[in-house]
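Re: your question about RNA polymerase sigma factor (Sigma-70 family)

S., sorry for the slow reply, the queue was backed up all week. Below is exactly what I fed in.
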Amino acid sequence: MVDHLKKIEIDSSKSWLRFLEGDRDALGSLFRLYFSELLAYGRKFIPSDDLVKDHIQNLFVRLWEKRSQLRPVGNVKVYLLISLKHDLLQSLKAEKPRKELDERMDAGWFEISVEDFMVEKEQEAELAQKVASCLAQLTARQREVIYLRFYHNFDFPNIAEIMDMNIQSVRNLLFRTLEKIRKEVGGSDMQQSGNIELILLSLFGYSSFPTC
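Result:
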């Protein structure tokens, strides 16, 4: 799985370079490749498929119009997620008072539900429900670091870039968050299924981490 993701990353970097040279089809391939992941990520901020789709389409239109000002990027997917997040936050800030926006960030953002997990067995479904209930008690930033690490399988530098934090702060945030999940879930589930990192990897459909 990790090797497959690496190949996708390399291929998308090549498509990005062709796009910068004026290849519209290359940009289209990036749109098709990352649309579903951008939509899933955008839903964590705005629970409206139509609005998020509009923002994604506007993002790619803007990329094409400003391609002469753009440069090669280290990770295309990270760049697109950051760009979409920025657009969504700017849109929300324009619509809502700062206090209301801050309260929403603390309470409702980055909901992670059972639907985000890849569950095949009844035993896994029970564990997934328990983990999802625990995640619902976390702060938005705690849920975001879990989502980026385990759903997108990003390494710490990529997470730091997306969350606008330094790498050590990301490590600290993830460690504290995992400790909280471990204590909340606890019990026989942990003993039977191993550590919480492996459980989350499995629930999100991975078997190992990227190289950090």
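Residues 112-203 form a domain with the Arc Repressor Mutant, subunit A fold (CATH 1.10.10.10). The CA atoms of residues 12 and 33 lie 8 Å apart.

Happy to talk it through on Thursday.
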